[in-house]
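Workshop exercise sheet. Pairs work together: one partner reads the sequence aloud, the other fills in the structure field after running the prediction. Swap roles for the next sheet.
Pair: D.N. / O.F.
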Amino acid sequence: MPPVLGIGGVGGSNANAIVKPTLLGSVDIGGGTNQFDGRFANPPFLFGSGGVELVGLEMTRDLQRLKQQAIATPGTPVELVSKGVHFGSLVANAAGEVDTTNVTGVKPDLVVRPFGRKGQFATVRAFDVDAMGFHFGMQPSELVGDGVDADQDGVADEIKRGDLSSLHVFATTLDRPIQDRRGRAATQGYRRFHSLGCVECHRPTLETEARRLPLRLPEVETDPRANIYYGIDLAAPAPGFDRNRAGGVSVPLFSDLRRHDMGAGLGENFHAASAEENRLFITARLWGVADTAPYLHDGRATTLTDAILAHGGEAQVVRDRFAALSEAQQDEVLAFLRTLRTPSSPAKALLAYMAQHDEAGSHADGHGKTSGKSGKKSGKSGKSSGKSRKPRRRSKRVAHQKPGTWWPKLLERLARGR
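Structure field:
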């Protein structure tokens, strides 16, 4: 499968990250089997990250409030429910000590972390702080300190706070995934998706109470309202989430943002994690699944059917129900899943903005052949005067609006540390 270049898209198996192994299989050990004890992680796409982050922040806020409720009513078990998703229960004693033995799907600190296959990061920014060092060998100042050359490569402040803010804005304003119109088979498949029990974990939509995603610095994981410096309107044309009746937005992610035990078959062999942790994965978000093979945390499944049949652990019963369907009935479920698409023209505003700057630079250098009116551009948000390819179906409210131009300018300002 050749790589396809794009902005914010999923990575193929050739893009998998090999995470912290002590054995890498360079020598066959026993029975001709290559040994590997790290994590093999297939990178997911970034589309719709702003909505996902806001859902996670609101869930964290709810769980933290329920924890305080338990402390205020010692001896009384408190059920942990947010947005219809159940995270077990907890109880506090008279000294204010909280028993989290019955907490499920989230760590005992009650912070929902939607990002990372294992549910490790609460925000895109937190993910980026870790990824800068791991993937690029560049250390963020907010992690190692201002003016500190922690890796002793002769360079301090390799990634400044403004750089990370720019990345945060970029990722959380990327277009959300979309859904094609369902035909007869896909409609029947959606009904089977419900009747099989897939929706118990792959929740079709989670609703937010707010419309604006708060960007914070520094981030306090247990307090999503601390240190807010900017807010992103998720109902703006980019990322284009639909407003709901509560004043927030609808996030059709097909996930509950819980961590589940997926059984030994899907379990990892990561030397730095317990056997239980190696079996735990956050529910995969299915929006965009039609365009994002390979599947599962390590890309082992090349088809949707393979991915479904690899489910085990808490999903074993639902997996077996799917396996018991006739081939025609399975095809209906797959027809539904194939309506869940990635956006057809993501980051249009950014690309248009970059094209304008490139064209202006070429003209200034004397290499361009522009007419003095930005070439053949209309001069309105850098949009071409010719007809562009019609995007896949979105809500009528969003589909006919011009892409916003506010955020490329914000990216520049944040990158300068302002």
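Discussion prompt: Residues 44-341 form a domain with the Cytochrome Bc1 Complex; Chain D, domain 2 fold (CATH 1.10.760.10). What would you look at next?
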